UniProtKB/TrEMBL annotation, chain A:
<dbReference type="InterPro" id="IPR032823">
    <property type="entry name" value="BCA_ABC_TP_C"/>
</dbReference>
<dbReference type="InterPro" id="IPR027417">
    <property type="entry name" value="P-loop_NTPase"/>
</dbReference>
<dbReference type="Pfam" id="PF12399">
    <property type="entry name" value="BCA_ABC_TP_C"/>
</dbReference>
<dbReference type="GO" id="GO:0042941">
    <property type="term" value="P:D-alanine transmembrane transport"/>
</dbReference>
<dbReference type="InterPro" id="IPR003439">
    <property type="entry name" value="ABC_transporter-like_ATP-bd"/>
</dbReference>
Automatic annotation (TrEMBL), chain B:
<dbReference type="GO" id="GO:0015808">
    <property type="term" value="P:L-alanine transport"/>
</dbReference>
<dbReference type="GO" id="GO:1903806">
    <property type="term" value="P:L-isoleucine import across plasma membrane"/>
</dbReference>
<feature type="transmembrane region" description="Helical">
    <location>
        <begin position="261"/>
        <end position="277"/>
    </location>
</feature>
<feature type="transmembrane region" description="Helical">
    <location>
        <begin position="7"/>
        <end position="30"/>
    </location>
</feature>
<keyword id="KW-0472">Membrane</keyword>
From TrEMBL, chain C:
<dbReference type="InterPro" id="IPR027417">
    <property type="entry name" value="P-loop_NTPase"/>
</dbReference>
<dbReference type="GO" id="GO:0005524">
    <property type="term" value="F:ATP binding"/>
</dbReference>
<dbReference type="Pfam" id="PF12399">
    <property type="entry name" value="BCA_ABC_TP_C"/>
</dbReference>
<dbReference type="GO" id="GO:0015807">
    <property type="term" value="P:L-amino acid transport"/>
</dbReference>
<keyword id="KW-0029">Amino-acid transport</keyword>
From TrEMBL, chain D:
<dbReference type="InterPro" id="IPR043428">
    <property type="entry name" value="LivM-like"/>
</dbReference>
<dbReference type="Pfam" id="PF02653">
    <property type="entry name" value="BPD_transp_2"/>
</dbReference>
<keyword id="KW-1003">Cell membrane</keyword>
<keyword id="KW-0812">Transmembrane</keyword>
<feature type="transmembrane region" description="Helical">
    <location>
        <begin position="28"/>
        <end position="48"/>
    </location>
</feature>
Length: 256, 291, 235, 357, 362
């Protein structure tokens, strides 16, 4: 069985079937993209994967355990973390604090430890701060460490969301349109960064409308339309798939 | 006796509903709990009293007091709340501001009118009707009719008119509403005017019913009406009506069966029970939080 | 038609616009490109009156509209699809569009407006009763653009209209810009997707750190090596 | 290159900042400043032994504690409580009933008061989990009113409207601590110190960060693995316990409590202190309480206009400083511990070595 | 400066003698506190015209406790800290008095409350006095009116849920039981809270229980609406109140509904007594309204305190206390002398309302 196995998940909102019996699988260390027209149900799939929505049918199996309908915080603990389509940083916190919040579940000291400032508290706290700073370095945000998240430019906010997701210690990262609002040069940089994450062993599921990113980085691509899967395969295959071109790509050059 | 108490409770509930509408109107546009509403209500009642004592005749006096109280609402918005909106300050700053306003109004009323209870002329005092062994006064009937009429009118304004749409737009996203050509500050001030008018109507009716006014009169009534508004789903006018009636009747029942000393917390007990089952009140919509 | 002169805008002590001069003539499509945080959205905010200009003037059709209230500016015939979509989340799609036509009093015009938007974005028609806040990101973007069209503007300001839209819809948006332009609607366009933006524009401005660093014919700008390197992703 | 440029820009803009100067210097001289404040507070009763002023000082101290308690809910976690008087009442009643009816000592009864308040916090925290914003606020308001009603009607235990009279002064090593012998003042100082340090320690830990995360974006917080339920309830409990402590002290200060001691006005007063001082900060609570508690005292001559002016103060403060008097974001860099700094240096050296290789 | 201040109390260096009046000057019961102050000022003026006391002018200093216990505790601290106050007239309600009294006792400052009626109040200590009857005396008078003057047997009680109201209703019940008059009984007792003007549930219950007379333990602002609302469902009901409802506002607020309401008072402003007539007209001229019973008790309280100071020959706290304990004072509220607990005994006048006026019952 694959690392992450999704079998026939379905989500309805009133009369709308937002996601209709979608199945896919992701292997460890892969970058898999999910693409499809607006309102196809991509974000909804992420919401189901991370426990924001309960699923109406189907199952999600991660690393051998069923995780569907678990609470979001349990899903994170299991090792899946995400970013949001609309940026949701802790705007009033500093950059480094945002990442520290991410380390929350990996922190073990108790409430009493923190009130008594035990050695365990100090040791662990130092370690987490260090982890946070190292993550920021790797993503190129180290020099903005003391800034408040709110004051970051858009692109940096996107990066910080990723940094925060990494800090949870998750092995699977779900990125929802990370390149939105970036210009071609910036998305090229992002592309590099995502590649480097893959090298570090992360498994990545990506939602993106920017084909220059998707086609360049994905190991495999799933395409959904109206909540239903319509195609999947290697980037090249998808770029030339008639159905996909009709429903989604139009005449756009895919850069693949 | 129970029938009588239920009816008394309904009248009381209508009074709460009238007040609750004011909370809902303002909340419905600013997402702000206007803690000065109870004081505005007291202001309306005192203005009516003052004008009545000037021998204008009761109807013109009451009508004038509606205008004055409505203008007070506008004044509050323009002087205290609009500047906060301009600065995009945190919501709770507005809340504290309304608490400050409430202090000012209530204490100024005390300064000018004295803190003691004063007599207010009876309104609609046309006698009593008996249905079975329930006695209903005309005052009670008129309170119900006026309240229902007012609420119907407000629902129509909010749901069916252009300014009503603008009001809902302002609540959801004032910046976008402004960009769509809505004069947001005007719409908000207008809402405060409506809120003030509804408070003054409540002030005149309730004072005419109990024939008592005093500066503190809006305190407990205001809190309970606020509870009623939330109970119904704050922001919703039908919710305010149902919430008000529920609070009124349960209070009356509590006073009958548990004793009058329990009545003040009854509104809150009912409220908590309802909210545990329905976290957004009876008619409240769930806030949209798509991830 | 729109003229911006020596415009300065601050956010607190952040100097976001440092003396912008810009002009949009009637019937043109003008593009505004520049990297993140350059001040593009701030310029649109200042034109629409959301942000306050510290100094400088903005004239529209010969009238000075600097620092007038947004609702007033809308009435003069400017309409915007703002950054971040700014839909009314609890209102339905239809109510959102109705608010877009707030300044229009002619019932027939409003009906035509609905028709035009629904034709353009059939998805909105399908979902006209859905609360805007529950729509997907791209659907909300369509709604924001549709809403901006509802008031029959003379000048349309579009802040990154292609953001979050599927490739085929992006094409459609650019077709739309061209087609409404041919109906006489002037457009000022902000895009990250500079390639496409420049291809439909007559002229373009490049913004860097709150100043205009370059301006001119769209084709010339697109051919400029510095622009190509910095914004078009070509080496 | 690019990064370096940015950094320079940043440090430039930071240097201009007034808040930065204050914070920088306070941070630099924090030890002497702390000693100075400590000494001043300790000798205060020796300089000004006027009982009235001491009574007010103790009252201010109590309200600082109350504000610190409420701050955990409102300032850290973003849950606006309008019924805090309820927790104060629980602490005050439990402690003073135990002291008067069962003859418990002050410190023991305060401990029981804390436990009871913690249970009440739990009780209130749990059902409010599904609620947010105004809905939560009104439930807390209702809680305050219900506590008041219980205190008023449960005659056999609380004495109803007659209240609890002759609440004894605390005793320490057989010495009665009163205003007259300054004992109550020093007791207040000690308790205030403990509460303040406690709040600071909680704030600067993962608990504090979890609170803040929930406040800014609950959903994002959940996605970081924060157990929102647990932390919200924890905030309620901590807040309740601190309020109970302050409430018990208050009861012995006044010597008499009745249900009307704990009205909605008390709740809004505490809330006003939190907001006025600057919510989410500890320093703000001190300034807020100092202003709002001493104002009615210094302005007695205004008579009827006293609370008109009070209202005006609230409005003007909100208008000109909605974030609160001392409610600013820290501008000095995030403090790193020595160990972290050392480790970072090692990191940097390694990096240099590896790149120079 | 502070030290000088504390000693100035018993030294003769001060130019004036200060008397504190403490009570609700703002807020809900402000009319009482202000009444106290007015009465005190009038009494002080009378003395000052005659040359003051001990050759010094008398100054009345007003303190606002908002009728709240916590404010009163602070205020009392403030008064004792002033150091040059010769005595305190006040605090208004019993509960508030009970909070403040221990502070005065501890600092040996004389307090005379014109209004406290709770039995425990004067037991706080030997510096604590009252110029008001203990509640049981007044309750007995009210019951007397209900049973003997009105000839009713089924008594209903409606009481305000405050310490005073709770205590009063308890005492009424005990007294009726103790009296054991044939056929006389309490048929129902309902408590009501402040802040709500709707008393119909309580009234309906009393009416169901068949009460033919209602003793209303509350101030004028309870008696008037209760009478009004009760008469709507039972026009024959008789209402008996207490002396604190004796106020012009009762008539203004109650209108026709309070015709026939009765209550016992110590002080009756329509009295034919020459002394009282003069006092009432002087008061009315000065302040525009007639003095209420409690106001008049405050007036006499100041007179007693000043007599005591004069008799003691100094403002020495202990001397004043001892002199006060001995004073036998002829005032507008009758001949007054404190007993060993600091309480007084007074004659009650029974008053009713007829044609919108207070008249003596016959
Ligand atoms: N809470 C909801 N209530 C009703 N409909 C919803 C809700 N959430 C999502 N939908 C609908 O479900 C469909 C799928 O939405 P989703 O956000 O998953 O789309 P998406 O594929 O992410 O699109 P985009 O690329 O535009 O972000 C949309 O049509 C949307 O309107
Ligand atoms: N509300 C605000 N408060 C403070 N600073 C702001 C605010 N909005 C924008 N800024 C700052 O002003 C500058 C210009 O921002 P603006 O949003 O106009 O850029 P932009 O060109 O539209 O960028 P993007 O491509 O990211 O949309 C940036 O440095 C940004 O950080
Ligand atoms: Mg999406
Ligand atoms: Mg922008």
């Amino acid at each position: 069985m694959a690392y992450l196995q999704v079998n026939g998940i379905t989500k309805r909102f009133g009369g709308i079937v937002a996601v209709d019996k979608v199945s896919f699988e992701v292997n460890e260390g892969e970058i898999v993209s999910i693409i499809g027209p607006n309102g196809a149900g991509k974000t909804t799939i992420f919401n189901m994967l991370t426990g924001v929505y309960t699923i109406d049918e189907g199952e999600i199996i991660f690393d051998g355990c069923a995780i569907h309908n678990h609470k979001p915080q349990e899903v994170v603990k299991a090792g899946i973390s995400r970013t949001f389509q609309n940026i949701r940083l802790f705007q009033d916190l500093r950059v480094v604090e945002n990442v520290l919040v991410g380390t929350h579940i990996k922190t073990k000291y108790s409430f009493l430890d923190s009130v008594l400032r035990t050695r365990r508290f100090r040791g662990e706290e130092d370690e987490k701060v260090l982890t946070a700073i190292r993550i920021l370095k790797s993503i190129g945000l180290d020099d903005r460490r003391d800034d408040y998240a709110q004051n970051l430019p858009y692109g940096d906010q996107r990066k910080l969301e990723i940094a925060r997701a990494i800090a949870t210690g998750a092995k699977v990262l779900l990125l929802d349109e990370p390149a939105a609002g970036m210009n071609p040069q910036e998305s090229a940089e992002l592309l590099q960064f995502i590649r480097s994450l893959q090298k570090q062993g992360y498994t990545i599921i990506l939602i993106e409308h920017d084909m220059s990113v998707v086609m360049n980085i994905s190991d495999r691509i799933y395409v959904i339309d109206h909540g239903k899967p319509i195609a999947h395969g290697l980037p090249k295959e998808i770029a030339n798939n008639e159905k996909v071109i009709e429903a989604y790509l139009g005449g756009v050059s895919t850069g693949a | 006796m129970i029938g009588q108490q239920i009816f008394n409770g309904l009248t009381l509930g209508m009074c709460y509903a009238l007040l609750a509408v004011g909370y809902s109107l303002v909340f419905g546009i600013l997402r702000l709990v206007n803690f000065s509403h109870g004081s505005i209500y007291a202001f309306g009642a005192h203005t009516a009293l003052l004008l009545v004592s000037m021998n204008l005749g009761i109807v013109p006096a009451v009508l004038l007091s509606l205008v004055f109280t409505g203008l007070l609402g506008v004044l509050i918005d323009k002087t205290a709340l609009e500047p906060l909106r301009k600065k995009n300050s945190i919501p709770i700053a507005s809340l504290i501001t309304t608490i400050g306003i409430s202090n000012i109004i209530q204490n100024l009323l005390t300064v000018f009118f004295g803190s003691e209870k004063k007599a207010f002329p009876a309104l609609f005092n046309f006698g009593v009707i008996s249905i079975g062994n329930i006695q209903i006064t005309w005052t009670q009937i008129c309170i119900c009719i006026v309240s229902l009429g007012l609420m119907l009118l407000l629902v129509l304004v909010v749901k069916k008119t252009k300014i009503g749409l603008a009001m809902r737009g302002c609540e959801q996203n004032p910046k976008a509403a402004n960009l769509m050509g809505v004069n947001v500050n005007f719409v908000i001030s207008f809402t405060f005017f409506l809120g003030g008018v509804s408070a003054a109507i409540a002030g005149a009716l309730i004072s005419g019913y109990y024939q008592i006014v005093y500066p503190n009169m809006g305190y407990m009534a205001g809190l309970k009406a606020f509870a009623a508004a939330v109970l119904g789903g704050i922001g919703s006018i039908p919710g305010a009506l149902v919430g008000g009636l529920l609070v009124g009747v349960s209070e009356s029942m509590a006073a009958t069966f548990l004793g009058s000393t329990y009545r003040d917390c009854m509104a809150f007990v009912i409220l908590i029970i309802v909210l545990i089952v329905r976290p957004n009140g009876l008619f409240g919509k769930k806030g949209i939080t798509k991830v | 038609m729109l003229k911006v002169e020596k415009l300065h805008t601050y956010y607190g002590n952040i100097h976001a616009l440092k003396g912008i001069d810009l002009e949009v003539n009637k019937g043109e499509i003008v593009s505004l490109i520049g990297s993140n945080g350059a001040g593009k959205s701030t310029l649109l905010s200042t034109i629409t009156g959301i942000a306050k200009a510290q100094s400088g003037t903005i004239t529209f059709k010969g009238n000075n509209i600097t620092n007038t209230a947004p609702y007033h500016i809308t009435k003069t015939g400017i309409s915007i699809s703002p950054e971040g979509r700014e839909v009314f989340p609890s209102l339905t799609v239809e109510e959102n569009l109705r608010l877009g036509a707030y300044i229009v009093n002619d019932k027939k015009k409003i009906a035509e407006g609905y028709e035009r938007v629904y034709e353009l974005f059939p998805r909105l028609k399908e979902r006209y009763k859905q609360s805007a806040g529950t729509m997907s990101g791209g659907e909300q973007q369509m709604l924001a653009i549709g809403r901006a069209l509802m008031s029959n503007p003379e000048l349309l300001l579009l802040d990154e209209p292609s953001l979050g839209l599927a490739p085929n819809i992006v094409l459609q948006i650019f077709d739309l810009i061209k087609s409404i332009n041919s109906q006489g609607v002037t457009t000022l366009l902000i895009e990250q997707n500079a390639n496409m933006a420049l291809s439909v524009s007559n002229r373009a401005y490049v913004l860097e750190n709150g100043v205009v660093s370059m301006s001119g014919d769209a084709k010339e700008i697109a051919a400029d090596p510095r622009v190509r390197k910095a914004y078009l992703g070509h080496a | 290159m690019n990064g370096k440029e940015r950094k320079e820009n940043k440090s430039q803009s930071v240097k201009k900042n007034f808040v930065y100067y204050i914070e920088y210097n306070v941070n630099l001289y924090k030890v002497p400043l702390a000693i100075l404040c400590g000494v001043l507070l300790l000798v205060f009763p020796k300089i000004i032994s006027d009982r009235y002023i001491l009574t007010i000082s103790v009252k201010i101290g109590i309200y600082i504690m109350l504000a610190l308690g409420l701050n955990i809910l409102v300032g850290y976690t973003g849950l606006v409580s309008l019924g805090h008087a309820g927790f104060v009442a629980i602490g005050a009643y439990t402690a003073s009933l135990l002291a008067t009816k069962l003859g418990f000592g002050f410190f023991l009864s305060i401990l029981v008061g804390m436990v009871v308040a913690a249970l009440a916090g739990l009780l209130l925290g749990l059902p409010t989990l599904r609620l947010s914003g105004t809905y939560l606020s009104i439930v807390t308001l209702g809680f305050g009113e219900i506590v008041k009603t219980i205190a008023m009607n449960w005659d056999s235990v609380t004495n109803g409207t007659l209240g609890v009279k002759n609440i004894p002064s605390p005793k320490l090593f057989g010495i009665k601590l009163t205003i007259a012998n300054h004992g109550l003042y020093y007791l207040m100082l000690a308790m205030l110190l403990i509460v303040t340090v406690f709040c600071y320690l909680v704030y600067k830990s993962r608990t504090g960060r979890a609170f803040l995360a929930i406040k800014t974006d609950e959903m994002a917080g959940t996605m970081m693995g924060i157990n929102v339920t647990y932390y919200k309830v924890l905030a309620f409990v901590l807040s309740a316990v601190i309020s109970a402590v302050a409430g018990a002290l208050y009861a012995t200060l006044i010597g008499y409590i009745d249900p009307n001691t704990f009205t909605f006005d008390v709740s809004t007063l505490i809330l006003s202190i939190v907001i006025l001082g600057g919510m989410g900060t500890i320093r703000g609570m001190f300034v807020g309480a100092l202003i709002l508690i001493s104002f009615p005292e210094v302005s007695r001559s205004l008579m009827d206009y006293r609370f008109v002016v009070y209202g005006l103060i609230l409005i003007l403060m909100m208008r000109f400083r909605p974030q609160g008097l001392l409610g600013w974001r820290s501008q000095i860099p995030y403090r790193l511990s020595k160990n972290v700094k050392k480790q970072l240096e090692i990191d940097a050296n390694q990096y240099q070595e590896s790149s120079s290789l | 400066g502070n030290k000088g201040k504390t000693t100035s109390g018993d030294s003769s260096s001060a130019e004036t003698i200060k008397i504190a009046v403490a009570g609700p000057m703002t807020g809900d019961n402000a009319e009482y506190g202000i009444g106290f102050t007015n009465a005190a000022k009038m009494m002080a003026d009378e003395w000052n015209k005659k040359g003051g006391v001990l050759g010094k002018q008398i100054k009345i200093v007003q303190y606002d406790d908002k009728n709240s216990s916590e404010e009163a505790a602070t205020i009392a601290q403030k008064i004792v800290s002033e150091g040059d106050i010769a005595g305190v007239i006040g605090h208004f309600s019993s509960g508030v008095c009970l909070t403040a009294a221990p502070i005065y006792q501890e600092n040996k400052l004389v307090e005379i409350s014109p209004s406290a009626s709770h039995p425990d109040y004067s037991l706080v200590g030997d510096y604590i006095f009252r110029n008001n009857t203990v509640i049981s005396a007044e309750a007995a008078a009210s019951i007397d009116i209900a049973v003997n003057d009105l000839g009713k047997k089924k008594i209903g009680i409606i009481s305000i849920k405050t310490d005073w109201g709770t205590n009063t209703s308890k005492i009424i019940k005990e007294l009726v039981e103790k009296l054991g008059i044939d056929g006389v009984s309490i048929v129902a007792h309902e408590e009501v809270v402040e802040g709500s003007d709707d008393y119909s549930p309580a009234i309906t219950k009393l009416n169901q229980a068949g009460a033919d007379v209602v003793i209303c333990a509350g101030m004028y602002n309870l008696v008037a609406p209760v009478a009004k609302q009760y008469k709507q469902i039972n026009p024959d009901i008789k209402v008996v109140g207490f002396s604190n409802s004796y106020s012009q506002q009762l008539i203004e607020l109650g209108g026709l509904a309070i015709e026939g309401v009765c209550f016992p008072v110590i002080f009756f402003s329509e009295s034919k007594d020459e002394k009282i007539k003069n006092y009432v007209s002087a008061f009315e001229k000065e302040f525009g309204n007639k003095p209420s019973a409690l106001t008049s008790q405050a007036y006499d309280s100041v007179g007693m305190l000043l007599s005591a100071i004069e008799k003691a020959g100094s403002t020495d706290k202990e001397a004043v206390r001892n002199a006060l304990a001995e004073v036998d004072y002829e005032g507008v509220t009758g001949q007054t002398k404190f007993d060993e607990n600091g309480n007084v005994n007074k004659q009650f006048v029974k008053v009713t309302i007829q044609g919108g006026k207070f008249v003596k019952m016959n």
